[in-house]
Amino acid sequence: MQPVALQSLSELERASLQELALFQLQQRLPMGHLSLDRDGPKGIKSIRQKLESFSKDRKDCSAHTFGVPLPQVIANDRACRQLQEAMGRSRRLCLEVEATVTRFRAQRHKRLGMGTSCIRAPDGGCPEEPFSPALVDKRSWSQRRGAMSVDSITDLSDNASELLEALQLSHPNELDPRRSQGKKKLLSLNPITWQVPRIVDRCCTHLEMHGLQTVGIFRVGSSKKRVQQLREEFDRGLDVFLDEHQNVHDVAALLKEFFRDLPDSLIPRELYGAFLSTASLEGQAQLDTLQLLLFLLPPCHSDTLLRLLRFLAKVAQHAESSWDPQGRQIPGNKMTVSNLATVFGPNILQKEKPGEKDAGALNFEDSAAIILVLQRLIEHHHSLFMVSPEMQWDVLRRLFQTDPDVIEYLLRRKFPDVPSPEREDPGEELALSALPGWTHSLERGSVSLELYSNVSFLNLDVGI
């Protein structure tokens, strides 16, 4: 088994990984640094609810993007995208109807021009073909109604990501807290779709294309009037496109303001003290602790943070001057990792909510710790968002205790090339013997699974 990206894990695996990371952090960090463990043993079971509780509070507000909780921003973007797609389908349908009516009129005019509106059939009647337009042919109608086999889904390569996202949309009843109260949410066995706000992705993409060589990006001032206009367009839910004519410093300021105005900071305030405590650690211990803390983040916060860190790392790569193949000097943007961490640190790690008393007041120790932590995140984001084989096995070991019926499916997904053996009695076999290196035995009261590899030996002994 190889290290895998955090985003490739299923929703169920990520939830189990959160619980596992919290347990290990409680062993690593001093008491009080992790505010989530105040409830004692119940804190482990409620980690998902605590970190994602703010995503359930949907406020009725006119703003679409700024000053709105991150999960709601993503939901708003999704709703706008679905509306645009529905309007596009409606326009295409209208064009099809118009073209069909035009063909019908042309055929009717041609027949009337020949002196008859009906050609007699041999039996004296009119032919069965009606003089009414066929609005949609049978093939397109069957496709529009969803008459599609499951196997044909794999052929939709262009819309694969959109299809995956559509299959993972929350049921409308889940948005109503009164209906979902008291019901246990079933977690998916498929990976969670990429959850990054449209404004973040478009600002980062624009700056990657047009701003990497801009000196003083994120430091040079912008036009408040133009930035305010962009804010209003995003807040109205418009499909804003940032082209080469858009000022780089305006887009940079817009990106900073988005993270600054989040009511729930990108790194939840419940983890503020825990992240700052890693500044006192060194070497691999610091990176391991940061990785565990990143595993605690809700998916939308984790995905958005990774998108931002990738972008900042790319900006830092162009900090120094370079030369093109013709020998001409390309000026650097002067924004090193330290400078970027100084600019974005207070917007990513916030102790107080925006507008609260002392929200912008930080002592020197906290400011230095925030800069150091964000530096490490930028420098090591490639490895910090990867899940090691050891951690993957720990997740499987934990799922044996909580959801033993899904283990075989998860293993099949991790080893897709292994054929599935036929079983005479599914109730007595786990169908894991075909996996390379796996042996299993059933004993009364326990299931023992062993994996032999060239680097490790893992024994999964779980009581049942």
From TrEMBL:
BP GO terms, sorted? positive regulation of intracellular signal transduction; signal transduction
Keyword Cell inner membrane in annotation: no
Gene Ontology molecular function: any one: GTPase activator activity
- SMART domains with a match to the protein in the record: RhoGAP
What are the record's GO terms for cellular component?
cytoskeleton
Keyword Disulfide bond present in the record's keywords: the answer is no
Q: Per its UniProt record, what Pfam families does this chain match?
A: RhoGAP (PF00620)
Keywords for this entry? GTPase activation
Q: What InterPro entries does this protein map onto? A: Rho_GTPase_activation_prot, RHOGAP6/36, RhoGAP_dom
Domain named Rho-GAP is located at 187-385
Tell me the PANTHER family matching this sequence: RHO GTPASE ACTIVATING PROTEIN 6-RELATED, RHO-GTPASE-ACTIVATING PROTEIN 6 FAMILY MEMBER
Name of the protein described by the UniProt record = Rho GTPase activating protein 36
Gene this protein is translated from: ARHGAP36
